[in-house]
């Protein structure tokens, strides 16, 4: 449903919510490995998310890195999608058509119209902190480390 960039961004945010703080910053190498994303691609995503430090904060230097403060963790997933300019995926046409409307519906319009409010409510209610806490369940992992170890 979301672009690869958004998927990586969400994984990075969850990982930072779980592992980082002002005292415990995460470097780009660790973060890109943890979310199984190319380092340069991760850096590009983080550049967007650290702009104005609305969501992810960063400090440069030898003890620098990225982190989420407690107030950032209270943001909803919908807010994150808005920052990533990906909320159109949820609010627009499910097929990405520009001309989809009541008068000119796409083949999925009627069905999606019924579930869109539920999806928006779910994304607006779920906070980064809640998602990070739920991801600590050993059955749910950001990155399958066994799969990575097998590739080496």
Structure report:
- The protein has 152 residues and is mostly helical.
- The protein has one domain: Arc Repressor Mutant, subunit A (Orthogonal Bundle).
- It is 53% helix and 4% strand.
- The protein contains nine helices and two strands.
- The chain has helices spanning 4-19, 28-34, 39-50, 70-73, 77-83, 88-91, 109-125, 128-134, 145-151; strands at residues 57-59, 65-67.
- It has a two-stranded antiparallel sheet with strand order 1-2.
- Strand 1 and strand 2 (65-67) form a beta hairpin.
- Helix 1 packs across helix 8 (128-134) and helix 2 packs across helix 3.
- The protein is elongated, with a radius of gyration of 17 Å.
- The model is unreliable at 145-149 (pLDDT under 50).
The percentage of residues in β strands lies in under 5%
Radius of gyration: 17 Å
Q: What value does the average pLDDT take? A: 86
Going by CATH, the architecture would be Orthogonal Bundle
* The CATH class: Mainly Alpha
CATH topology: Arc Repressor Mutant, subunit A
Task: Specify the biggest β-sheet.
Answer: 2 strands, antiparallel
Distance between the amino and carboxyl termini: 30 Å
What low-confidence regions span 5 or more consecutive residues with pLDDT below 50? 145-149
H/E topology pattern: HHHEEHHHHHH
Overall shape: it is: elongated
Number of domains: 1
| Share in helix | 40-55%
The largest sheet has its strands arranged as 1-2
Number of helices: 9
- Number of beta strands: 2
- Judged by helices, strands and strand pairing, the structural class is mainly alpha
Superfamily (CATH H level) name: Winged helix-like DNA-binding domain superfamily/Winged helix DNA-binding domain
């Amino acid at each position: 449903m979301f672009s690869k960039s958004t998927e990586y961004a969400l994984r990075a945010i969850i990982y930072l919510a779980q592992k980082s703080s002002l005292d415990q910053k995460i470097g780009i190498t660790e973060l890109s490995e943890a979310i199984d994303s190319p380092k340069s691609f991760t850096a590009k995503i983080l550049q967007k998310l650290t702009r104005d430090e609305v969501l992810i904060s960063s400090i440069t230097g030898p003890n620098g890195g990225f982190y989420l403060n407690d107030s950032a963790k209270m943001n909803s997933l919908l807010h994150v999608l808005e920052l990533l300019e990906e909320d159109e995926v949820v609010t627009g046409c499910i097929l990405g058509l520009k001309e989809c409307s009541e008068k000119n519906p796409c083949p999925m319009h009627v069905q999606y119209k019924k579930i869109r409010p539920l999806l928006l409510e779910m994304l607006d209610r779920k906070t980064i902190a809640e998602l990070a806490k739920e991801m600590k369940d050993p059955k749910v992992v950001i990155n399958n480390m066994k799969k990575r170890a097998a590739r080496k």
